[in-house]
Target: NAD(P)/FAD-dependent oxidoreductase
Amino acid sequence: MPRTVAVLGAGVGGLMTAHRLRGLLSDADRIVLIDRTLTSSLGLSSLWVLRGWRRPEDVQVRIAPSRLPGVELVEHNILAIDPDRRTVTTSALEISYDALVIALGSELDAAATPGLAGALNKGSAHEFYTLAGAERLRRRLEKFDGGRVVVAIAGVPFKCPAAPFEAALLAADLLRSADTPHPTQVDTFTPDPLPMPVAGPAVGEGLAAMLKQYEIGFFPNRVITSIHEHSRQLCFADGQCEEYDVLAVVPRHRPPRVVADLDLSQVGWVPVDARTLTTGLDGIWALGDVTVLTLPNGKPLPKAAVFAEGQAEAVAYGIAHYFGLPAPEPWFDGSGSCYIEIGGHMAAKGEGEFLADSAPAVTLHEPSTEFHDEKRAQETDWLRRWSR
Model:
């Protein structure tokens, strides 16, 4: 009897899962990929938009049906997931499933930080996690004539743990190239003790040293409590406030409402088995940014596309086994890498095994043009793979 797999989310994890499933299941089995939009971009491209190396229209793709033959593409808002009835309700229809994959990512929650939503709406603060936000920040920096640029993290977890520090390095590079007429300082503020603390102290200290090398201030253990746009102040839990001329904020992240409504954890993220990505609910898997995957050291796996791509294979194999079909054993190995652009078309690279015994085993490699080229190749391959 034909079976239906519903894949929720058309980001990296959802696309790769649907693609791998199509090669494992029978032609009679139905695979439905559902998302509110089938237009997408890689997160790494947003930072290059910030720097001015890309235009938003150059790095977006409209997922072409020809790239996912045998997969139904449904562009609807997802309103509800019912694990008991095994249904997904969208703005236009209800779909019954035999297996479900939740790959809906995370959302920006500006309202969680007092003052941030209003500051973003009025253009007195900026974010760079969307193409439009990165483009607005670029335009603001290109008109900047001197002062203090602050890149601040409103809360954890957030997508791509290197992104705020990469944004600071690229902003500094842009300002240097623009020959800003008056003195300029770029500073970073984080609630964590080090950049990318999940990767271990050696990596964090290496990134902090890199920021210092490029004269970017690093202020750890600073928890934001409010933003005051009129006085241009960022205030913290220790009672101190810092002034800024340009503010770029990593907003708090939250799971999509339909996922939080499942009430699978106190904070709404989906807990999963580290190796198989099973959720504890019959016939339901989750992967990517929507999940919380606890590492052997007790810290969560970073939210990054590289992990979603690796998890997609484990999920597809797990569903094949669930249906009684031959497939390799599902096993996510936890390996991954990320690139940290420093400007001048150079990038550092962190890579390693995040599910290694006791703690992640991650190495930070020195910046080079080769790493920048590797990152560019990732973007090029992704755009070619999914565009019409």
In short: The radius of gyration is 21 Å. The first strand starts at residue 4 and ends at 8. Residues 91 and 349 are 42 Å apart (CA to CA). The longest helix spans residues 305-322.
